[in-house]
## 1
Amino acid sequence: MAEQVRAIRTRQAILSAAAKIFEEQGYQAATISQILTAAGVTKGALYFHFQSKEDLAQGVLAEQDQQITVPPRVSKVQQVVDVTVLHAYRLQTDPMVRAGVRLSMDQLAQGLDRSGPFVRWAEVLTDLFETAQSQGELLPHVVPAETAEVIVGAFAGVQSMSQAICDYRDLPARVAALMRHLLPSVVLPSLLTSLHLGENRGAEVYAEAFMAARARQAAEAAG
């Protein structure tokens, strides 16, 4: 058990170091040597967990999906909003998420499959919109998969603009504006007034999701 815990910690240290270097240097300029130095581990330890720089980058891209999730909502449109604003909040506060976004947007990252985060997020939103449609929350013309991809693409542009202008400081405001502009073309007017779209929504959802994750961990440990 102790060895397993040690291995998990080592892997996490390597991923955290890789995230730092990828965010600072970009994929092409980052080197295994820089990541080793930042992680404080041996080359053997790194290659035990990751086969290559590409494997490390894929680990960072996947890690952002694993850490925290939005609890289910009665309104699936609200859940779409909460998934989106939570991602915005984590971009401001979580180096792993920032590194993952930097990698996914890095057009110079030759040989790296950057599609994963876009595809996974679009699938999540498509499922939510399909349920919202079955619950009568959407306008008749809406195609869930199409709307999901529009939101993912629009968010990518908004976060990129926010990063360039002010290092994500205004991202919650920009995402709230994005939702206010997009949702009226998707959602029944009677539902719009009940949605929580404020700039502080991301922080509120994060606090709720964090407590839910802690409760799950405590229950698993007790069981």
Note: The domain at 2-56 is CATH 1.10.10.60 (Arc Repressor Mutant, subunit A).
## 2
Amino acid sequence: MVLNSAAQLPFFASRIVNWQKDHGRHHLPWQGTHDPYKIWLSEIMLQQTQVATVMGYYERFLSRFPDIASLAAAEQDEVMPYWAGLGYYARARNLHRCARQLVAEWEGAFPTSSEQIATLPGIGRSTAAAIAAFSYGERSPIMDGNVKRVFTRYFGIYGISSQRLTEQVLWQTAGDALAAADSSLDMAAYTQGLMDLGSDCCTRTRPDCARCPLQESCYAHEHSVQHELPTPKPKKTPPERECTMLILQQHESILLERQVSPGIWGGLWSLPKYDDASALHTACSNWGQSYKRSQKMAGLLHVFSHFKLHIEPWYVQCDASSVAEPGPRQAWVPIEHLPSTALPAPVKKILSGLFDL
């Protein structure tokens, strides 16, 4: 499966380190620290999320939760507003669980080996290795999506990278590259260099081979197969779902519903959701409300990683004399509090169209 006989394993890591020091990223807010809490937070936020999106969230989150103790002491309700809009909300729930476990079992500090770090909630092998490399200089390989792309192209590793056999080859190759590297290798620069190379140079669709420090002995460049590596997954058409959301306004408040965990929006506050408009209006009728206004709004398509959701919002305004009692997990939230409420991105977008959040 590894085809590159020209690969120069002893020089692989040093070339990446030298390139990173001259051409890599050095001014990201989570760089220049050995604090495992700050490194952990950045690594979790950067999973499936672009750097530009993470920057603002990272600063706001740290301002509110500057250390493990403050995060562990908070309730999940206090944490979720600082993650709302970032997506993949299980990350935030695991972040909170992990902080509490660190306080309960590790005296509020991170363990010092990647093997121990990987036992914590929401932290996989690659993330654990990155935390250990940046915090403690541990020589452990990482293997995220960007790094897989570098390895498959340079070493000529075919096979879908998420499949077990291919992953085993990738991890073995990454370990071999570290074993062949000089003992004085700067692990922080090497780890960051792999990330930078994959995101900035060895990109998915338009790799900039002319700038790559590995170009001379890269299998994909030599054989012009950059578009074939990593081996593409068979394309699947994501399923599509539909729902109707109720924007129920009473005086200067909106009815919101707490989403159950686990779930896509678990722990966040969303608009009450129904299968269709008929079910929504039936629910309203059952409350015995009288309304001043009922209006269908423009639909919204929200794309998740594994399906597409078509949302049909309905704006309903209660008569001033009527009082709607919230149901289970529901609450009336003042419109002025909506900007600081943990709302999913599509819900915030819908409400912003009405109330200029």
Note: The chain has a mean pLDDT of 91.
